[in-house]
Amino acid sequence: MTNKEKEILDIIRDNPTIEQSEIADLLNISRSTVAVHISSLQKQGYLLGKGYIVADEQYVVGIGAANVDVYGKSRIRIRTHYDHPADIRSSVGGVMHNIITDYVKLGGASKLITAYSDDSYGKMIVEDCKNSGIDISDSLFVKNRSSGIFMQIQDENNDMYLAICDMSILEGVTAEFIQSKKHILLGSRLVAIDPSLPNETIEEIISICKGRVSIYIDPISDNYALKIRDYVKDFDLIKPNLSELENLCGRKLNSEDEIVRACKELIRKGLKKIVVSRGAKGVIYADEEKVIKRKFKEEKHMVNASGAGDALMSALIYGQVNGLSIDETIDYGLAAGIAAIRSEKTINDNFSVDLLEEIIKESKQ
Questions:
Q1: Mean pLDDT computed over every residue of the chain
Q2: Does the N terminus or the C terminus of the chain have fewer Cβ atoms within 10 A?
Q3: Range of 33's domain?
Q4: Cα 227 to chain center, whole Å?
Q5: Looking at the structure, do residues 16 and 113 belong to the same domain, yes or no?
Q6: Does the predicted model carry a pTM greater than 0.70?
Q7: Are residues 155 and 213 located together in one domain of the fold?
Q8: What is the CATH number of the domain that holds 352?
Q9: Quick one: DSSP state of residue 163?
Q10: Of 158, 179, 190, 163, which Cα lies nearest the Cα of 329?
């Protein structure tokens, strides 16, 4: 939403029956310009129907994985074909679940469209979303199947050594299913997706949202980066790490300059914005107008790196929805990553705007 659109929306909230000519007089702009802004607000879902009915809830939609994570942290150095003593725990996770949960902790309203079953894992997912304030009423419920499961082995340094997952239940989130949720997508502020969805489903989301609602995507893995390569032009923001970016552009990138050139190449193809996550090296951001390289002070208290990327994405969504500048949004994103790696859990229990602002003060260079 532009600043002028915000002004118009505020005026309509105070006086829903106001004429376009009256808005034009108040803002000292032409009536035709007001009409353009109102049309934009209707397309974005801020105004509903032909009359000026202001949407009650400004929510974000997340479409993708929600599953149960099982983590095993080895107490010794990892060796192949060896029985390792370990600490094992489980919790509800999944890339889209984590992103949306973090976003809700930042004060946002959300709807999660995923798939789950009637097994014990599915019950865990439903209960977790309920407790977190996430609306999953538009998700797909499937009987007699396994809900999503993600298993990760962590080394003695708390970093991922190996991971496997079964998200086949998401095959039920078809293009036809998404079409039945079209009104939900078009009424949202932003749609975030992950590439574990079927290709036809991703194409349907693009068909519904492109030019109407921003689409953000996290490639998640090298293989999924290859999967979404042909859709780059259709997204408003992609958040890859280095190896995912290499797969998106089809070559190795050996320097910062090469990373920047690859980002600009994707922007020329039609991508609006890209944020390359580089761990301790920070991020590289690019759009049509600028490139930003930024990192915070080195974090010395890493406990668990698994939720950092999801937290970063939630902060990027928060910045977009709340009209923050890109510089402010990047700061929030870096702080979100730090908040995540300081927590033993994938999602930091204390994740909040206040926490991110504290981290920005202490960590910004």
A1: 91
A2: C
A3: 3-54
A4: 18
A5: no
A6: yes
A7: yes
A8: 3.40.1190.20
A9: E
A10: 190
